[in-house]
Amino acid sequence: MHFLRNIAIRTAMLWVLGIFCVLWGGVSVYTIFSFKEMTTTSQTSTLLVHNMNLVNQGNDQYFRMVTRLARVVDWRRNGENSLADKEQTSALTALNNLKSDLATFSSIDHAGLDAALAEAVIRDWGNLITQGVDPMFQKAQANAFDEYQRYAKETVPALSRQFGASVNAFNKAGSEQFAAAGARFQQITSIGQNILLTGLIVGLLL
Questions:
Q1: Which of 55, 68, 153, 188 could form a disulfide with 91 if both were Cys (CB 3.0 to 4.6 A apart)?
Q2: How do residues 155-191 score in pLDDT, each as one tens digit?
Q3: pTM of model > 0.85
């Protein structure tokens, strides 16, 4: 009887040990999965922020460029060429930044956002440069002030509005995806905490 009782105790201990191993094995697998999901979510969020920063920076550089160029024209008309030269250099810097930001945006991944939205931004951004601010800068640089004014009033605003609409649509989709990523991150964290707590309680009971 003593021998049989020892076997029963050992069998029970093995069952407890087996359940404990399965339990914490499951917890470990889910924890690894959670870390992977959280890493992916974090990387996606970082990429989204980079995308949105680029388009917003491009929009900012556009407005800086046209504002500075307008001052260049005013100063040249008033004969203040020294001031105009400095401001023209600053306007050219903004224009080059605008082009550089477009090149960067075109070359990076867009974090799973609708490809049509990114393509629209790239297309309208490019049109704003090639059909809008580039020719406008050249007219100001050539002191063709009447042509500059006409171009600035009749051609560039429509291109600017189209670019702005594309940027807004892209940012809206990016903000929605960013919020969804945050919710997913919270969900994974909450489930992970509950599983770990449950595993701890069951382990103590065993």
A1: 68
A2: 999 999 999 999 999 989 888 887 776 667 666 666 6
A3: no
- Alpha carbons within 13 A on the beta-carbon side of 98: 28
Side-chain half-sphere exposure of 56, counting CA atoms within 13 A: 10
Q: Is 155 exposed, middle or buried (0-12, 13-18, 19+ CB in 10 A)?
A: middle
Q: What is the rounded average pLDDT of the residues 88-104?
A: 95
In the three-class reduction of DSSP (H, G, I as helix; E, B as strand; rest coil), residue 206 is classed as coil
- E strand or H helix that includes residue 164: helix 156-205
Angle 193-198-204 (CA atoms, 0-180°, nearest 5)? 130
Compute the residue count for the chain.
206
In 78-155, alpha helices (H): 81-107, 115-127, 134-141, 145-154
* Three-state DSSP class for residue 125: helix
Strand, coil or helix: 80: coil
Cα Rg, the chain, nearest whole Å: 31
Whole-number Å distance between alpha carbons of 88 and 72: 6
139, pLDDT greater than 70: yes
Mean pLDDT along residues 9-29: 60
The Cα 8–Cα 137 span in angstroms is 91
Contact status, residue 129 vs residue 102, Cβ threshold 8 Å: yes
